User: Fold these one by one.
Assistant:
Number 1:
Amino acid sequence: MRPQLHSSALRLFTPIEADLLAVEERIERVTDIEPPILRDALRHVMLAPGKRIRPALTIACGRLFRDATASLHSMAAAVEYLHTATLIHDDVVDQPSLRRGAPALYSLVGNSVALLAGDYLFAQAAATASETNNLRIMRLFAESVMTLCAGQIDECARIGDERQEIDRDSYYRTIDAKTAALFVLACHAGAILGEASLAQTEALRRYGRLLGLAFQIVDDVLDLVGDESAMGKPVGSDLRQGLVTLPVIYLRDEIAEDLLRQAFSDDGAKEQAIEQIADRARESNAVRRAYAEARHLCDEAAAELEALPKGSHRELLWELTRTVIDRPS
């Protein structure tokens, strides 16, 4: 069995392919559970091909300093369980029709079962992280879950005009909590298990945060102007869910306010407005500004690697700073 990864990720992660295979085997085993409805739900969300960026970060950051251990594999799997649990819960809140080109879990099993499946994965993530027998890891894991939940609550608490008029600082606060926190967890945990120095650990924390912020910005740009077949979801999905992202914040300077309001309406003008906004965005300065910010964040992330041990694992982390910007979906 080979890791369930996109082909581009397989090429990038060649230095840690054996480690990712061990993690993938753990992920497959965790889906072999009763009752059947939970087993099917977990297989639907866990065994679909994905990028596995977060577990790859955990492994690469650990292997910068020492050979891989069972604890490193456990933590990498825990990070992926946690990530998947957050996606399940996000989909219950936002109600998109698709996730990675397949039906979102809630649409197959209902909100209640999907929520409980997400809860199960949260618990599985904690149990798997505990296999490291490391109190620093467990505290870090708990703090990361609290940050993720607080970020989701902060976003959900915005209603009406507050959602439409979100500013850049509020947007960054949200993605710092909802996306970058998981990248930080992956990198920080890898550094702890690799027995990195305090300075090296802090460098990897900063790297993870910067990479996570850039990753989400590019995700949000692609949601607006990307290729639907590559993304596995319709263009403009964030707007349909009432979410204003960085490219839309910048696009507000270039489009009529009424057009954005129509995209948030519940009448027949909604879909047409979203299509018009996406068309305008493709040729806009807003998309260029958002990409420029993501590139700057990636450049800062790459700079954090300079003081870390040279070799294939540092090169992998550096390549990720380029891949985040250039990925097709």
Number 2:
Amino acid sequence: MCRVGRSIPYWSTLTTRLVLERMDTRQRHNRWVTSVSFSPDGRMLASGSEDGTIELWSVSDGKLEWMDTLWRHNRWATSVSFSPDGSTLASGITDGTVLLWNVENGLSMHHLGSHTDGVRSVSFSPDGRMLASGSEDGTIKLWCVPGRTLMRTLSGHTSWVMSVSFSPDGRLLASGGKDRTVRLWQLG
């Protein structure tokens, strides 16, 4: 039997069943929670919601404690993702906006730009220098985080891009879309 830690979901190799233990539940959002992301050190959790808020939570010994509301708006926060060093939180919004937040002080640092339709997924590269955003407009945008500039727009999906993720070495980007395709992009 494999066990990763106290009260963490794990697979039992003897029974091939997923064993779940619920640790804590908190409710601050008043609509669907659309995205959650752990900070790299596991001490914080960010949640984005259809209610137009992004919440920061402290995670300690399996307990959630509310820390701060980063954003209140009339648009959904559809995706949240921590940078690899944990200092920045990226968010994708249904109005097409991509925002970067300073986690330490809770302030919006940068508005990277916009897609022509809602952003469904954001993901940092392993080195934190690039951010990918996938949108309902069918495109993926690659942003230079230090320069806060658009590097490239990737096209090919015929419908919404629902998910983006970098490979561990940062050389590939995977995307999944409402067009039922998974695509691999070589980032050179």
Number 3:
Amino acid sequence: MFDSHATVDWYRSQFASLERTLNGEAASALHGMRRSALERFADLGFPTTRDEEWRFTNVEPVARTTFILPGADSVRRVTQTDIAPHLLAGAHGPRMVFVNGFWVPSLSSIEGLPAGVRVESLAAVARHREADLLPHLGRIAPADTNGFTALQTAFFRDGVFLTVPEGVAMEEPVHLLFLSTEEPMPFATFPRNLIIAGERSRVAVVESHIGLGSGLYMTNMVTEVLVGVGAVVEHDKLQNESSRAFHVGSTFIRQGERSQVTSNAISLGGRLVRNNVTVVFSAEFAESTLNGLSLGTDEQLIDNHTTIDHAAPNCSSHEVYKSILDGKSRGVFNGKIFVRKDAQKTDARQTNRTLLLSDDATIDTKPQLEIFADDVKCTHGATVGQLDEDQVFYLRARGIDEVAARDILTFAFAGDVVEKIHVETLRDQLHALLQQRLGQGRIRALRP
């Protein structure tokens, strides 16, 4: 067992180191938010398996690791050549690149934005226009959600502040690329994104978290999305961290009247991964679509928790989360749909499907509906199974060998989610990554 008091003391010491780098910013309102969040973390600590929301996910390996805050010197070692495989090939939209939590202007490209659109470093805005952040930052994602969110709010430094004004439709996706390098000491980064889509605006955001090498580190990130009346937003998150990394990511979305949101969460890498997606309907006639795909191998643990809060009437939500688990990997899915008392005419549908490629792979799935209104349409379901041997036989009877046949069926299972991503360049990238990961899993399975 880890010493929770020692853990809190360690993060207090790291916080003191952070404060010494802030100069005048230590007196800012945002830093006051950080201090309050640190105290909240001291009260909450890291969650344990005694907490209902975390009972299938033991984060003790995270809690007992002494992560340091990375230095800016590591940024200089990353080049355009290093990031090239992780870019959206053929895309010409804005790109913000972060290395170990630090924005790197020389690797980024934010030219040619539509009038009024801002894609900025959160740290730079905090230094020069703090008032632009205060009405929203930390309002959509409360710091007391759990210990990880509190810790993230205490230590966030940089990330992206994206604002799309009323009526503006962005034709190209905005790519947020967060890279982590292999360092001598375990380190932690705390990226924070704030996305504000104005009334009747349209934007697609691709958020990529990539590990360069096989380093031991933690990414603890929060993305807050405020969607205005009639706005259309797609948020695509690709997590492909180091095989030794820990990733805890939380996306909080608040939707306005008649808005449309699509959230696609793809998890490929990491040793222990937790994805939280929370959607709140704050006004009528809004619609959300949540899709997720996890591919686990070896002893990975990938935990997906989603919450859709129907707090307003006449809203609809559609959710499909899939997992492909091989080796001794474990998956967790917990999907909650709340329908509040006044949220009549709600239409909510949720599906969780898991494909087990190994007898040693496991999944814990828990779809939940909590309905307090009368006039609603709500369904949920979960299925767990292996490849259909009849389908394998069908393909083999047509001259396809067994390995290829199984790969085709597995890829088709995953492709159902990938094809729902509207950003074509990301779809192409994912097809290549999935084929690579399926091949790696097959090679590992053949080892004695």
